[in-house]
Amino acid sequence: MMPLNLFLLRHGQSIGNWANDLVRTGRYSEIPERLHGVPIWLLKLTPLGITQAQQASNWLDANFGLNNIQAAIHSPFIRAIQTASHIKIDGRIWRESSFIRERSWGDMDHIPTPEEYEAYQYNKVHKSPDLSWQPPNGEILMSLTDRLTHVYGTMHRQHSKDNVLWVMHGESIVATKIDLERFHLVTANHLIAKKNSILYIPNCGITQYTRVNPWDERDIRQHLMWVRELDPMDPPEKPQQIWRSIERVKWNTEELSTLVNAYGID
After folding, report:
1. How far is it, in rounded angstroms, from Cα 189 to Cα 102?
2. pLDDT tens digits along 99-110
3. From the CA atom positions of the chain, what is the Rg in Å?
4. In terms of DSSP H, where are the helices of 3-143?
5. Domain encompassing residue 235
6. Considering its fold, how many domains does the chain have in total?
7. CATH number, position 193
8. pLDDT tens across 163-172, in order?
9. pLDDT digits over 211-224, tens only?
């Protein structure tokens, strides 16, 4: 069985996130030259990213209890390690796993120049949908699910009675959600295009899966059955996201035809 509760936490805003926003908005000259060509995995959090990580720690403690987490895994990238360092869990429970690292961006694995960014945008728009698009010499997003099977095995063997936290990356969380919630890929592509969908992962956004019935703690299932998405940076007065049941849907042939007609291209 998977853990009782599984928390997926995206890292806080990184210098790479900040710099890419500047590139997108035509403010490339504001990026310090010392950052040019630096591999993305080495970049730390911005001050905002640190605040986000601290807020995530506060939310987890207030709403679940950090000392109720028995295992924690972080990606080997610096921004994920730094985020983990601000989640104030007692004891030596952190482990590194390369299986939950960010996808490889290949030739784009650094802060791009405006010309590189324009070429990247053209390539992405004209080649294929998000889930099957491959950055030049990089990884297809859905290849991340192949890595996750190794982590699932560890969860089943070692942490079936535990509460577990993974600190990882936006797209690795998307791949995990698609896998655990059994999204059809065409449906997932449709959701990724929408900024406020359940597949949009903000910095330090939290996705929580559970086997424990949120309305009856005596009801513990064999599989992860409920999920919710949260943003610790939301103001306290904003209602928290409600739980969704995970429906591992099977399709009949008529429904498959409807899916093809809705999304396919003749």
Report:
1. 19
2. 999 999 888 888
3. 19
4. 15-24, 47-63, 78-85, 114-127
5. 5-16+45-105+145-263
6. 1
7. 3.40.50.1240
8. 999 999 999 9
9. 999 999 999 999 99
